Amino acid sequence: MNKDDCHKITHMKLKKDMKVSELIQEMGNTNVLGAGRLYRATTLFSKMLNDSDMNIFLSLAGPMIPGGMRNIVTNLIKEGHIRVLICSGANLTHDLLESFGGSHYRDYGVDDVKLHEFGLGRISDVYADSKDFEIFEKEITKLITEFSKEKETYSIQEFLYKIGLSITDENSFIKAAADNNVAIYAPGIIDSMLGLQLWMFNQTDNLALDVVADMNHLSDIVFEKEKIGAVMLGGGLPKHYTLASSLLKDGVDAGIQITMDRSETGSLSGAPLEEAKSWAKAKAESNLVTVIGDATVLFPLMVAGAYDLID
Asked: Could you tell me if 269 and 119 are in contact, meaning their C-beta atoms sit under 8 angstroms apart?
């Protein structure tokens, strides 16, 4: 390669009433730094959506649901774009909190001591009311009690499927998944308010979750189609579970991650997706894009841009 092989950067041109896909194409014309990464991620996601031989796995870590991503996730499921959802227990909890009539709030503008006095919990600049959690606790305990009368042991996927069939909120991604045969896995479910309610129920009654049974179910889905694509928001356990699930097929064929975490500490959350090739969690020839930034900004842009590009 020599200097003549290099491409000059084309500076972005903006205009009134641009479509999201047009803006992202301008980012692609520049094709460097975060703009270039978002363009490549959007282009890749549109190809994944158009590929009938690919099952797409979506993983959610961090406060995606309280952070405003709920309808986007739900609609991706309803539109048939997602086959598997791998989720933190917290995102499940916050989806159910809204399904049971609660809300998430913003703009309180007081310190954390005052928030505690008001009965409010804070996630950055998102707030949740303890009264909504009280309703959540009552409603989820009713469901757990009903389920325990049918049998004492469920896989996590089966347990969440039953919850989805039992709620009526059309904006719930848990309900959408149950209605559209999309499997939800939550390997860290105990580390959440939902998990806490399961533990409290088991102080006097019995309902056990079989985490090994999830792997039997997931392994079948892994082999349903020729290829696997993965979109990972944040890192942590959901990201690892998503990548590791594809080991039996030598890794994912395409992957996108959006993360704010850094790679220097060796954490999986900040690791570039290329690292997964060394573990056979991504195929050697896989198409991978890591986008550094806030998923609540970048994920909506990526999805909106990809919608314009799919058939």
From this structure: no
